Prior knowledge:
Layout: H1 2-6, H2 8-26, H3 42-55, H4 79-95, H5 111-140, H6 146-158, H7 160-170, H8 173-188, H9 192-203, H10 213-224, H11 230-252, H12 259-269, H13 284-288, H14 294-297, H15 300-324, H16 328-345, H17 355-363, H18 369-382, H19 384-389, H20 393-406, H21 408-412, H22 425-455, H23 465-491
Helix pairs in contact: 2-5, 2-6, 2-7, 3-4, 5-6, 5-8, 7-18, 8-9, 9-11, 10-15, 10-16, 15-16, 16-17, 16-23, 17-18, 18-22, 18-23, 22-23
Amino acid sequence: MLVRALGAPVATILIIAVSLLIRFGIGLHPYSGAGLPPRFGDYEAQRHWMEVTVHLPIQDWYTNTTDNNLDYWGLDYPPISAYQSWLYGKAIQRLEPEAIALHTSRGYETPSSKTLMRWSVVASDILVFIPAVLACRHVFFKDATVEQRAWMLFAALLQPAAVLIDHGHFQYNSISLGFAAGAAAVVASGKEVLGSILYCLSLNHKQMSMYYAPAFFAHLLGRCLRRPTLLTQVGAVARLGFVVCATFACIWAPFLVPPSRAIEVLSRLAPLRRGLFEDYVGNFWCATSPLIKWKQLFSQQELVQLCMGATLLTVLPAMAQQIRSPSRKGLLLCMASSAFSFFLFSYQVHEKSILLPLLPVTLLAPDVPALAAWLPAVAAFSMYPLLKKDGLSLAYGALLLFWAAFTLPSQAAPNRTAASGGAQGRGGSMLSYGLPLIFRTSVGLALGIHAAAAVLDPPKRLPFIYDALMTALSFLHFAAAAVYVQLLLWSQDHEKSN
Length: 498
């Protein structure tokens, strides 16, 4: 009622303003590695990349030299991340050159430099992510009610996990996620070439965007195969293939000559040296590792093959559906399903990788309101071991309470719109009516683990038992969500693609 009384424009401005205010508030808290020499953390990595890209020639950005020790936070993201570091580094250099001075700025931490760095993340949201979310709302929910459009914007901009990782822990995931969201909106509106370019930008900002590759490939192939003749089908595929190759060539141009330089960059992007997983992440391999010692039973090569096979096996059904019957909202569901497959089963998954399935789920919030309210809270919970190390417990608790106050109570009741059709179909209705029990059980277990960790010391033989319990509980939630999204993708009556 309040949203309707305010009107769509005012509600949009208010939600964006609140989302920015909360980002600034989270930014007042600590960040990854604050005051922890000798390597500090992700904050220092981002600052160091600015230092390297501003002061060294582009050919040396990914090369181990006397001025660029790759063992100290060497660049390990694709070229657009490096270009972004250069751009923000140039801006910070003009305002506080000591913050990115070559060699002497390692571990540089001042209140003013922290403010500049925090502002750069907010700028990324303003320039890339927020416009992409607004574009998705216009394309996918142009004819939705004022309340539904407001809920979609709220879910996408204020889901706790993304805000805590980018503006607390300190990262720039909003850029790659923004490009991916923009690509989905553009493809859904019929502009396949521009959409392919935007997805290439996302993939070349962070290699995690590979999680969406099966969805975009299947959807675009399905659209191409709907052309009337074999010649036009082949032509459509060839055109998109040329666009992708040309986009990659432009982005990678400084690193293509000699070819060995490109191979050197690619070797920096492959995380095989880091092992099957790091720390505590709510995926299959980590959750089952207390029972099955994967790293002891299999060699690294065997684990890579095992992960590849499991990921491919679980992603194929969603791909097949979109090739057979591509649709606008089906693209978002396929993105979620594909990202879940990669998160749950691929090699070297980080806690932050859950942001990839979360994005399309929140973009579909009006159609899957229960899932869009419940899953972001679980995702934030799954990240707590990481956030706790960063000193973000207070920010975590406050943001989860804010999220719960505005979303979970209203979504815990059976959804009145579930029977009205839309992308939810029967699956959405089932989840909506089952959510009260799921919600109470999830909250009860999560609060129980938090309470136990707060008042009871872990057993000496199991010092990380609470982190492991968080991981296991999160995995069960994510696996259930992945199955639900897969079933929803196949069971719903998709709208016809353009």
